[in-house]
């Protein structure tokens, strides 16, 4: 089974749309932080925004869809680490602080 090699896209319009979405998410984040200050939903929302931004960058700018599946999975795991850590620290902050003290 011969499959033609995948080539990176040379079109700029999709990249401009993704870049605009990243800018909107970045500008929206501080407003959501002020609006939801102290809310229990804020860490989940911030984690979702971080994951979405990382996924957009990985898929459209790094073009991880064109890589070997192992590399794609490593990148997906790397993108998932920060949001998961943020939510875990929001839920179990005192325990993590106790573990981190000398």
UniProtKB/TrEMBL annotation:
Organism: Azonexus hydrophilus
The organism's place on the tree of life at top rank: Bacteria
Name of the featured protein: Prokaryotic cytochrome C oxidase subunit IV family protein
Residues annotated as transmembrane: 12-29, 41-62, 74-93
Keywords for the protein's UniProt record, in alphabetical order: Membrane, Transmembrane, Transmembrane helix
């Amino acid at each position: 089974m011969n499959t033609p090699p995948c080539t990176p896209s040379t079109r700029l319009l999709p990249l401009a749309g993704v870049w605009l979405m990243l800018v909107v998410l970045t500008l929206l984040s501080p407003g959501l932080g002020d609006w939801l200050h102290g809310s229990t939903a804020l860490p989940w929302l911030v984690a979702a925004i971080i994951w979405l931004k990382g996924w957009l960058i990985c898929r459209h700018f790094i073009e991880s869809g064109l890589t070997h599946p192992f590399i794609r999975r490593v990148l997906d795991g790397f993108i998932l680490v920060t949001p998961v850590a943020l939510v875990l620290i929001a839920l179990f902050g005192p325990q993590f602080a106790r573990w981190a003290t000398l």
